[in-house]
Amino acid sequence: MRIGLITGSGNHALPGIEAEGTRTVKTPFGTVELTEGVFAGVQVAQLSRHGAGHARLSSAVNHRANVWALREVGVGAVIGLTACGAVDADLELGSLVIFDDLHFLSNRLPDGTLCTYFDKPGDPQRGHWVLHGGPFSQELVSLLTTAALDAGLDFQSGGVYGHVDGPRFNTPVEIAALAACGVAAVSQTGGPETVLCGELELPFALVGFITDHANGVIAGEPTPVQTLLALIERSGEVFSRLLREALPAVAAAPTPPSAAGTLIRLGAPEHER
Predict the structure, then answer these.
(1) Would you say 92 and 98 are in contact if contact means Cβ atoms under 8 Å apart?
(2) Structural domain tally of the chain?
């Protein structure tokens, strides 16, 4: 099985990938460049959200093209990696969170349009993504949890990912509102990736690396920007340790991981629903 990796800040070139070359994929939503290669003996297609030099802020990421491109090159599962701000004060800087739920009420892409592939009336693939059991592949979450244990990493299995639009960071009252909803950590890209993988029925899991405590979480002790930047630089090493354990386990699983939820295609013949 080929596995898709979506990498973010500080991880344009994820340590550990034996790159075989880049591939340009044309999609209905734009052109995407992927790095194809091998990681821990597993074929991967890596997509850098922001590009070299962090060329694209979160508000300029073309999520629909990115996820479509991964589907086009035949990945059987996708793992998203993201630097996060902790909303839960108990999360330690430099630790991981393997998310199991999502807070993304706006359900919008960076340009303000709805986050969906189903924007054309009469599209035979149109439908509703029904989220019983959560928005992430339960098999991938389980395999990543075991991998984090085997790698000896500091991590939390389970937690609500909060998507915030950016590119600015959030105010204390905004973070407090997210905390009241049970959000564990926030970043600015994971929401659309989760939803769009769901609509394409791609198994998806999201892992966060805690680079700072979000605004107001630790009273009177904001995380210094220098610490945040240093941790972003360190995140690639930690993500790579996780993936060295996780990817072979995903590829060797007796049955492929399943996508989260159920897609109900309205108007499609019964056998296609």
Answers:
(1) no
(2) 1
